[in-house]
Amino acid sequence: MADNQHFGAAAYSGSAIAAAVSAALAGPSAYAQTQGDAIEEIVVTATKREESLADIPMSIRAFTTDDIVRQGLQSLDDYVGKIPSLALARREPAGNNVVFRGVAASGIDFGTGPSSSVYLDEQPITASGLNPDPRLVDIARLEALSGPQGTLFGDASQSGTLRIITNKPDPTAFDAWVELEANQVADGDTGYDVSGMLNIPLADNKLALRLVGFTAEEAGFIDNVLGTSPGGTYTNEEFVEDDINTTTISGGRAALRWFPNDRWTVDTTAIFQSTEADGFGDKDFDQSDLEQVRFFDERFEEDWYQLALTLEGSTGIGDFMFSVSYFDREVDYEADGTEYMFAFQELSDADEAYFNDVYGTDYDFYFYDFGGEVVRGYNLDNLQSERFSIEARWSTPEVDDSRWRGIVGLFYQSFEDTDIYKAGAENFAGSPAFYYLAYNAYNPSLNGLPPGSWDFSDPSVRPGDWFFGIYDSEIDQFALFGEATFYLTDSLTVTAGGRWYQVDRKERQVLGALQQGPVPNPETDFVFTDGSGDESDDGFVPKVNVTYNFSDRSLAYLTYSEGFRSGGANALRPNSVLPRKYDSDMVQNYEVGYKTTTAGGRLFLSVVGYHMIWDDIQLQVNDPQQGVFQLGVVNFPEATIDGVEVQTSFVPAPGWSLDATLAWNEAEISESATLFPGTGAAVEAVDGTRLPITPDWKGSLSIERTFQDTTLFGGTPFLRADYTYTGESINALAGLEATVVSPPPTIQDSYSVLDLRAGIDADKWSVGAYIANVFDEQGDQFINNRYAKRRVTVNQPLTFGVTYRRNFR
Q1: What is the rounded CA–CA span in Å between residue 787 and residue 333?
Q2: Is the pLDDT reported for residue 679 higher than 70?
Q3: For residues 39 and 43, what is the distance between their CA atoms, to the nearest angstrom?
Q4: C-alpha span between 610 and 169 (Å, rounded)
Q5: 78, 110, 240, 423: most buried by Cβ count inside 10 Å?
Q6: Bridge partners, 387 (sequence order)
Q7: SS3 (DSSP) at 526
Q8: What per-residue confidence (pLDDT) applies to 9?
């Protein structure tokens, strides 16, 4: 039989893996680092086993610890431009909608499952339209896996998977560092960042503790300026303030690693993060500068923590992994809803005019009559979610003279989510809308309380909640998965795998008003909808890959893979035309790729092309009937997505490194269809309509020069430039969006950002300075129709900063 190394370059010994990891942690390039004049491998776990990135037949973008530190990567905004397949629709506050390869039908999601997943170590922490954004402090690796990952990563990995992998304790040596940063946003506020790590061996080569902590204040740069209400009757003078989006982020991690023997590892981890924002970092669509007009103080708070236990070990029959994780999160925000409330009043006025015109009457409609245009509105939201995850898997030994290798596993997750949303108006108790709800005998409450029984006499409760929604979800998911690779020859391998899944969902939705206490209560408040849905869904997604290794440095591959989002049930008002159930939607991915390391190990190139078919697309929409306010998920037929992703790293000479990415994506509806036919509220989905969020072109270029033969103040100086380009995209599908008011789709213009960094690295310390967004270019990351008045999330303006890092070893 041929030598073991021929059976895929992924068959490394433990020492080789350790060497590759050490090389990866030391290097500046997002693919690899330079030692002398060659590129060294990075070891990733994208296939749930340790393998060289260059040898995996998949499109992967990876950043190591040193990449993250050297490039100043801290949050999604910092790295999304450097991942060619990744797009981000970020609506304030914290509405992070992560999208791979254009698989998105809306930038605003409340009820559909996400099309891509976010993992923190071994646990998925994905949330629909509201993904957590773990701060990248003491992170081992950031891995972006493009394309459907349904086999190994399951539901929500329909278009790709983003993995954040923390550094683990090291029992072999003491280590610690502290990093300080100060920055100034041009025409904005000042900010700071303090972080540190302490690694303590507790038993030599057996037990270690790792502690991580950070606190940062992100400088505000959005001004709430003087403006008048929608009808021009009052101003926001008392709320005018500069730099209102200052945000404080704090958190930490405690991890314990134990080696009971030379074959087994036990990791326990606790991670938490807290975010508080004084205001929202979006501008008004009709403002050219970084300005907004708000009639209430907006705020945002988020707290989450994760507890995890992982056991890994090897035996004579293979390697085992067992992980159990618990993730708890609470999000709370208050938003100005004056424009939102006014939009409802305009809808009421339009309904009144339409009714009187058709029937020749002169009735006054009061259900959204807030007393004219003399009141302010506000929106409150509180989200509490818990998830419990278990994964267990077995894989064949890493060193094996067999012609095949494989991995099998099981996954279970329980997810509970309660979201309470409230829309209110000042002086609501004195408005016609209040009297309509409270005293109209023809508008009874479902809880049987008589008209006129609602009381707002308690001064400790701010009256005025003219609408509330309680949205409860319970999701249980179980899956069995596996992949097997067979080495037909020393050069040709075939991999086949699949995932069987079952998902049980329970949904309950209570809609009402006239809230009596601080929290909506269906037993005491006015209730006009109390609906539920219960649905089970199961299926199987396959994967097949054929890889040909031209040499140990070059390969080509063909892949067919599928990704899925499970179906579910809508909890609806009785008169809604939305469907009671919706089906799973599936992505079929046809992919061809080529990877090579050439020029004496100085050049790495990866080129991937794909064609994807997205069937039964899930989309959350508002019921199109006039006067019916109801959100629900529908399926519409099909979209096709074509694209190319290119990554390259190059070492032209010792001390130099270049890294570049380029992506082209064309995503559009490929089959016309009519939604809600025969209802008088039909909506057309037209062939050729562009899917939102993902830009047509996207690219990045990084150049770093390390002066290896120069010593400055006892350290080695370096210079670095990072350029990203984000092409044109569109913010929404026409008529198909989960918003009350849906303006026509709007083009989000292309923009580019240049960052410059310089510094000195020594053994015990490093200092640096940077200029972010050198040309102060304003990019529209997402044009948001959520609050009736369009808001625009933008990138951070020109920023100057300095950093200092002290190592203790």
Answers
A1: 14
A2: yes
A3: 13
A4: 39
A5: 423
A6: 327, 415
A7: strand
A8: 34
